[in-house]
Prior knowledge:
The protein has 8 helices and 8 strands. It has helices spanning 16-25, 48-57, 75-81, 96-105, 151-165, 182-188, 197-200, 205-217; strands at residues 3-6, 31-36, 62-67, 85-89, 109-114, 132-136, 170-174, 192-195. Helix 3 (75-81) links the parallel strand 3 and strand 4 (85-89). The two termini are 13 Å apart. It binds D-xylitol-5-phosphate and zinc ion.
Amino acid sequence: MVELVPSILSADFARLAEEIAAAERGGGTVIHVDVMDGHFVPNITIGPPVVASLRKATKLPLDCHLMIENPDEFIPAFADAGANWVSVHYEACRHLHRTLELIASHGMKPGVVLNPATRVEVIRDILPMVHHVLIMSVNPGFGGQKFIEFSLDKIRELARLRAELGLRFRIEVDGGVAHDTVERVVQAGAELLVAGNAVFGAGDAERHARDLLDAAKR
Length: 218
Ligand code: DX5
Ligand code: ZN
């Protein structure tokens, strides 16, 4: 039920294949790839060429979190690179319904992301289209930030809404997921736990992934 989704943002980018292998040995089952364009968020990371290399380095699903303006323009390139899941921000999509259809039409699992300040109810009508909903529990742009507590209420609200609508999308949480927050996040209803700093921030990603997953399942 609960899966650990290591975010490579805090990994050593010169050793990505080894870092991912270590996180996988520690129990990570999906790899989270943070794509930032320096416009939607105040940071720049990686794009389709790196995803194409990662595709050759792991068999795990690649969960690409697009923190970019005009995601429609780049969706075909992520599909070609081998991305499996693609999530776009509600705040970055003028025509969210169209963008989610575009992701699905390229054979990828569509997801929608909400910034901390965005209410859950705004995505109600498109929920039948998504494979996952990503609740940001920090403002996007950087790893290692402090968990925003009211995200727990949003996770609970989303779980309620899913039950009310009889849907099956998965609930993912991203930002500040670590030893001091993971139990509450799971209790609130999150199933896909993105963790960057807690897995890759201090060396030995295998051990840190395993410890976090153990804490999540406790
Ligand atoms: C932040 C990214 C996160 C980031 C989380 O914009 O979306 O995926 O890696 O990092 P931690 O787990 O360190 O908060
Ligand atoms: Zn992310």
